[in-house]
Amino acid sequence: QKEVEQDPGPLSVPEGAIVSLNCTYSNSAFQYFMWYRQYSRKGPELLMYTYSSGNKEDGRFTAQVDKSSKYISLFIRDSQPSDSATYLCAMTYLGGGNKLTFGTGTQLKVEL
Amino acid sequence: GAVVSQHPSRVICKSGTSVKIECRSLDFQATTMFWYRQFPKQSLMLMATSNEGSKATYEQGVEKDKFLINHASLTLSTLTVTSAHPEDSSFYICSAREGARSSYEQYFGPGTRLTVT
């Protein structure tokens, strides 16, 4: 079993839709949870990070962590074609040797 | 924001040759740099962690004699793929972390597409 599971998609939505992207994980030691956006043939770009459980909002993006269920989500409101990319979740913990464990990424396409 | 560059962005080499990829932090001092590889539709897999002035720490299953990492300065790390084979073809991405920042504060380079023929 992979430490981090993420549906690879592709996920196709119309412009303006609310997008929900999710990851589950098995290692209860994970404390820091990140979402990265990766455009084709580019390196990942950090979108959001959260520590422990709860919600965090930044503009159109909301990150949600439920440690009891080992489940994290990223919501994108009013999705735009420019949001079309692969979204990777990643997680780590103190004492984890600075190692990020990534999900496989979900490919999102926002259509006009 | 912090900027990390990689060079080259794309390289094609013949089987058996060696290829060097550079990773630079342009506006901060990177005490730690990370090297990842990414296969199509797959996750980023950490290959090794390098700290400036120290030997790199390789992940299990990564051959240190094949993937030579040098982190000689606070702004430059290099990955050399020695005696490359077609199965080494992949997207190699570096990231850099400044000083005592948390591990999530890694800034990624744009990646290097390696094709071994």
Integer-rounded radius of gyration of chain A:
13 Å
Shape of chain A: globular
Structural class by sheet pairing and helices of chain A: mainly beta
Strand content of chain A: over 45%
Spatial gap, N to C terminus of chain A = 37 Å
Task: Figure out the total of helices of chain B.
Answer: 0
The backbone outline of chain B, from C-alpha atoms, is globular
Residues in β-strands, percent of chain B: over 45%
- Tell me the structural class of chain B: mainly beta
**Extended strand count of chain B:** 11
Q: How helix-rich are the residues of chain A, as a percent range?
A: under 10%
Tally of alpha and pi helices of chain A: 0
Helix content of chain B: under 10%
Roughly what is the average pLDDT of chain A, rounded to an integer?
92
User: Could you give the count of β-strands of chain A?
Assistant: 11
Word description of this protein:
The complex is a heterodimer of chains A (112) and B (117). Chain A is 0% helix and 54% strand. The radius of gyration of chain A is 13 Å and the shape is globular. In chain A, a hairpin with a 4-residue loop joins β7 (61-66) and β8 (71-76). Chain A has strands at 4-5, 11-14, 19-25, 32-38, 45-51, 54-58, 61-66, 71-76, 85-92, 101-102, 106-111. Chain A is mainly beta and 112 residues long. In chain A, the strands form 2 sheets. In chain A, strands 2, 4, 5, 9, 10 and 11 form a 6-stranded mixed β-sheet that branches. Chain A has a 5-stranded antiparallel β-sheet with strand order 1-3-8-7-6, with no helix packed on it. Chain B has 117 residues and is mainly beta. Chain B is 0% helix and 54% strand. Chain B contains no helices and 11 strands. In chain B, strands 2, 4, 5, 6, 9, 10 and 11 form a 7-stranded mixed β-sheet that branches. In chain B, strands 1-3-8-7 form a 4-stranded antiparallel β-sheet, with no helix packed on it. The model of chain B has no long low-confidence stretch (mean pLDDT 91). The chains are: A mainly beta (112), B mainly beta (117). Chains A and B meet through β4, β5 and β9 of A and β5, β9 and β10 of B.
